[in-house]
Design brief:
Number of helices: 1
Number of strands: 10
Largest sheet: 10 strands, antiparallel
Radius of gyration: 31 Å
CATH architecture: Sandwich
Shape: elongated
CATH topology: Immunoglobulin-like
Order of helices and strands: HEEEEEEEEEE
């Protein structure tokens, strides 16, 4: 009897009209993603500053030694005109000798570390300064903000090493950052080595400074 009931159910299922389960609607789905304009920073003049071999005998024993001033060029290129700012931070901040003189008037917050010798001695310090900025959308001038972009002031171009300050670029008429598709600027690097008496100059010492420049969208 169980087999008969099973066969009977199967037969009734086959007799169901085929159109009873057919869909009566069709859906058209539209998808996509709206993405913001992206900006890419690039060191046109090279991202590695190489001082070559520095003979230990040329270092001042009881005073700091200034290294030759170096320059590179930083360019920021965007997909479309967009308001952006730059932020600089020191990846070797624990190694900075903040008492060394770099660019005149620069305080400890604008000095970066050069790494450490094998015995842990801090090698020195350097500072970064931007200048001669140009924009693909017209004249511009650098401005900085220390309150997250609420207020902006013009400044001399020194880059803070703690990432706390933003650097924006105006339309050349006021202090508010403007939208740009590209901005290019010169970057000056001034470095100093600590006094030789603080360093293990009988061993090879490798300079190891590393700064990060980040694009922040406004």
């Amino acid at each position: 009897m169980k087999k008969i009931y099973a066969l009977s159910f199967a037969a009734s299922a086959l007799l169901t009209p085929i159109f009873a389960s057919a869909a009566t609607t069709a859906e058209l789905k539209l998808i996509g993603t709206i993405i913001p304009a992206a900006c890419a920073p690039n060191f046109v003049g090279g991202s590695t500053i190489d001082y070559g071999n520095i003979p230990a005998g040329t270092l001042n024993v009881a005073e700091q030694t200034m290294l030759p001033e170096k320059h590179t060029k930083l360019s920021v290129t965007c997909d479309a005109p967009v308001k952006f700012a730059l932020s600089a931070s020191d990846e070797r901040s624990a190694t900075v000798v903040s008492t060394l003189a770099t660019i005149d008037g620069y305080t400890a917050s604008a000095k970066y570390g050069l790494g450490t010798a094998e015995n842990g001695a801090k090698i020195g310090a350097y500072s970064l300064q931007i200048d001669n900025e140009t924009s693909g959308t017209g004249s511009t001038f650098r401005v900085t903000s220390s309150d997250g972009g609420n207020t902006w002031v013009r400044f001399g171009g020194g880059l803070s090493s703690d990432g706390a300050k933003l650097i924006g670029f105006t339309n050349g008429q006021n202090n508010a950052p403007a939208a740009h598709k590209s901005v290019t600027m010169d970057m000056r690097i001034v470095a100093a080595i600590d006094k030789a008496e603080n360093l293990p100059v009988t061993d090879e010492i490798n300079i190891d400074g590393l700064a990060t420049i980040e694009v922040v969208y406004l």
